[in-house]
């Protein structure tokens, strides 16, 4: 068998390995495991309007955007329909 020194060495490894791994993964996390620019800056995030005028302006902007997308979709569908009619003739 190994003897007392081997048992002391194994005990030391059993104790130090978890402590060393916790120390390695628990310190300096920002530089070791971070992804640069992962979270958007405050200017890039959505700003929630709180004032009545801001809410009205935001609703108008969303309505214009929705109508523009609808107009583009209808134009694309009309173009496809015209192409189908030409193919049939």
Automatic annotation (TrEMBL):
Residues 50-84 form a coiled coil. It is found in: Membrane; Mitochondrion membrane. One of its GO terms (biological process) is mitochondrial respiratory chain complex IV assembly. InterPro entries: Pet100. This is Mitochondrial cytochrome c oxidase assembly factor. GO terms for molecular function: unfolded protein binding. The keyword Transit peptide applies. It is a single-pass membrane protein. It comes from Dactylellina haptotyla (strain CBS 200.50). Keywords: Coiled coil, Membrane, Mitochondrion, Transit peptide, Transmembrane, Transmembrane helix. GO terms for cellular component: mitochondrial inner membrane. Pfam families: Pet100. Belongs to the PET100 family.
């Amino acid at each position: 068998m190994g003897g007392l020194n081997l048992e002391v060495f194994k005990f030391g490894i059993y104790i130090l390995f978890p402590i060393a791994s916790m120390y390695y993964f628990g310190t300096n996390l920002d530089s070791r495991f971070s992804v640069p620019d992962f979270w958007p800056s405050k200017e890039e995030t959505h700003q929630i309007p709180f004032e009545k005028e801001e809410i009205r302006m935001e609703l108008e902007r969303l309505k214009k955007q929705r109508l523009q997308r609808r107009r583009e979709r209808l134009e694309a569908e009309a173009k496809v329909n015209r192409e189908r009619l030409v193919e049939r003739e």
